[in-house]
Amino acid sequence: MSAVQNKAPALVRPVTSESAFQGQFDSQIVAVCLVLWIQRTTGNQGCNASHHSQEVTTKFVQRGYPIRSASTNAPDSQSFAMPIAERLATDSYADHVNPHWVKLLSLLEMNLRYERCVGTELFTTDGLRILDFLSGYSVHNAGHNHPAIVAALKDELDKSGPVMLQSNVPELAGELAERLCKLAGGVLSKVFFASSGSEGVETAIKFARAYTGRVGLLSCDRAFHGLTCGALSLMNGEYWRKGFGPLLPETVTVPFGDLAALEKELASKRYAAFFVEPIQAEGGIRVPQPDYLRGAQDLCRRYGTLLVADEVQTGMFRTGPFLASHHFGITPDLVVLAKALSGGLVPVSAVLMSDAIHGSVFSSFKRSIVHASTFSENSLSMRAGLATLDVLESEKLGDRATRMGMELQQQLTATLSGYEMVKEVRGKGLLLGIEFTAPRRLALRVPFEAFAKIHPAMFGQILVMRLFRDGGILTQICGNDFMGLKVAPPLVVTPQQIGEFVSAVRDVVELAHHPGSFWSEALGLARRAISA
After folding, report:
1. How far is CA 478 from CA 8, 246, 404, 460, in A?
2. Whole-angstrom Cα distance, residue 234 to residue 273?
3. pTM to 2 decimals?
4. Residue 451: CB partners within 8 Å, gap ≥ 6?
5. Residues with active-site annotation
C-alpha cells in the first residue's frame, strides 16, 4: 500500500505499539487543541458526529454491525473491542509470545477470536462475519481453507509415508518444481524449496553471489523483501532496520522506476543481483511504467548483474498471470515465490532459477548439500503446493483475478472519485491499493496534520479500524506507505462481496470528509494508546 510466511511485514501487524505512538509530543496540548477544533467545526460540545455521520452510523446498525458511540467513545455490548487488561490476564499468547501485539489489536478493536474461515469470509466465536480483503498479505489466493487443499493434506498424512528422512529423493518436490518452472517459463528450470519468503530471498542472495563472484546487492527504495538479516539489508526503511546492528555490507537502494539511477550503479559492475518486486506491495501498490522492468532487465544483462524478481506477494496468479513479471514481458534470472504457494496452510517457498545459476552452487556431488534447509521439500509442503496449483488452474483463478480486479478497480474509482482525500485507485488483478492524500479544506487539514505529527500511520489506522468495526472488512495500510490502503481479497471473491466492500469503503471515506466522529475517534485512539 506474517503469519504463515516470515516474509510478511508486521502490518496486519501494521505497526508495533511503540512505533505507532511513541513520539516526542505533548499529548495534553495536542488533545486539548483537537477537542477545541472539532467542537468548533462541528458545533457540538462533546465531539459528537455530524448529522451525516449519524446517518451513516445508522446504516451500519441496520446492517447488523456493532458501533462505538461517538459521544462516549464506549462500545455497546456487542462491540468488537476486548479490554486490554482482560486479554493480558487470560491470554497465554500475551504472557509468552508478544504482549504488545495483543495490546495493539485491542487498541484497534480488532482482537477477535475466529472459529471458522472459508473462502473470503471469517466467522468469529460471537457470531460476527468479516470479509477478508487482505488475504494474509496475499497468502490466501485460493481462499481460506479450500476443501481440495485440506483434503490433499489429510490424504498425505493418512499415507504415513516418508517425511523429512533427509536421506531420500522426495518425488513430490520434483513434481512441484516441474510445474512451477513450466508456469514461470523463460530460463527457469531448477527450484530450491524453503519455508518462507525471507528464506527464499536469502537463498537468492547466496546463489547470485556464487554465480557472479560479486558481493554487491541492489534493490529499490520502499521495497519489502523480508526481516531476516540478508533480506532486511535490501530494505532502506529505518523502522525495519533500527536496533539490529550492522547488516550486509555493499547493499544499495535506488528509486523504484528510475532507470538512470539503476544504470549508474550497475555500471560499476560490482553487483551480483538487482532485487525488485514487479509491483511494490508494501511500498504502496506501486505499478511501474510499462518499459521500466524491460529496461532494468536489459541493463542487468549488459553489466552482468542477475535480475531477481521477488514475487512473494505478486505471484501465484494474484495479479492475473502466474507471475506479475509476465505483465511486463521480462524473464528474470531468479524468481522468489512463497505465501500463496501452499494455500495458506503449510509454510513453503520456492526459488526458481536457471541451470547455470543452480550449478554454480550445486556444482558436484561433494557440494550437493552445501545449501539446505531442514523443512525444505517436506511432503506436506510439496503436497500443499501441488494441490494449490490444481485449484488455481482448474478454477481459472488467474483469469478471475483479472476480471474481478478490473470490476473492483472500476467500482472503487467511480465511487471515490469525488473525494478530495482520495488520490488514486491503482494496481493489477486483485492486488489493488487506494492512495489517500492530505485534505485541502482547513476544517479537515488541521486535525489531519495534528494526527500526522502524533504518527503518520494514524489516519490510515483509523480507516482500517472503522472498516473493520463498522463495515466488517479486514484490510490494512501498506507497510512502507501509510497513506495506501491495501485491497487484496482472495481470488475467489464474489461480485456481491465486492459490492459490500465498495459500499463500506464509501461510507468510511464519507465520514472522513466531515469534521466529527472520524476525527474525534482518532483522538480517542491516541488517548487509549498513551494509556495502554
Report:
1. 11, 26, 21, 9
2. 11
3. 0.85
4. 34, 458, 459, 519, 522, 526
5. 224, 310, 339
